[in-house]
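Q: Could you predict the 3D structure of Diacylglycerol kinase?
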Amino acid sequence: MSSPYPVPSTPKVISPSPTPSESSEQADGYFTRSVAKRSRTKSPQPDTIAEEKTNDDSEGSDSSLEKRARTRSRSPILAPTDGIKKSEPLPTKHSPAANGNAIPPQVNGHLSPYSQIKKSWREFSRSPSPLGLIPLHRHYRTFIHKHEIPRKALHVSIGFLTLGLYSHGLQATAITPWLLGLLVPIASVDLLRHRLPAFNRFYVRCLGALMRETEVDGYNGVIWYLLGAYIALRFYPKDIGTMSILLLSWCDTAASTFGRLWGKYTIRLRKGKSLAGTLAAMFTGICAAWFFWGFLAPRTGPLPDDPAGGLMYKGILSLPEVIRNTLGWSKEESTISGVTAMTVMSISTGLIACFSEFVDIFSWDDNLTIPLISSAGLWLFLKAFG
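A: Sure. Here are the predicted structure tokens for Diacylglycerol kinase:
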């Protein structure tokens, strides 16, 4: 015998917890279309949740209707939003108005791989710089981007150029006008390319092999290199200024090279600085000082046109008079010369070099801070013991 309630072609899915009205209309475990229609008319749809309640008479539904709506729609019931205005943010998990239910979505960064990159180019890691802005860096990742071979070759060659000019007797007063003459047009072009994006792209295509990717939106390191060299040669004696440029050219390159190769095997002193790179800068500074003051300077000068006080280190180191009197030593007892003085001078130069390469002053470029700190440190050391 057929059932008085025929099975519909598309059966309705039964809710696991039907409402009392639905339970009363249930027959043989199924709902007919007429029963479902009557249940929809008996059970009103849930009203939208009011974001701001003005008075008690404007409430949309009571608790029983809200429960029935949840049973039919199976959607979560949001917590009461009393006192929350439309312009206010959603309550968090720990706020008293949230009641542990309404939690804003948390950003996990999976959909944006560059979400962790800072907007300021100063906050980028300088060793190595980010990849993707300069086409040559993408094509030559090891040669140009990772090891920066063209940039380091130019960096080191300036030191040899400085030694060549010094050995030919060229004075600092003849070099500083050239440095200033190069600084003005290079800085002007750098300012211009930041205001013209098309020109900046052309500039990067031409000189991208010598640039870091942080310099695409920042200033070129050549500007700070020229400024640091100008200050060292203009305001310090001849040998101090020359040694400062050598420390900038060779110690900075050695610290960057050895730090990237073996820095991961040593302790990290600060961001971007490892013990391997700092020790490499100190050793290079010792060798540079021994070569310059122990070999080149005695065979080159003094020259007839050298200014008064042009050479601060003359192969002799002695304690200051205050310390000598405190210790009760004579001038001869507190003076060293020859190999001993050269050893002390070289070690002191190496320590000054690694300190100037390691320290960070207001996030200034190290092409500026290294010659400033090293020239000031050498001048103070020789002023006290020279």
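Q: Anything worth pointing out?
A: The radius of gyration is 38 Å.
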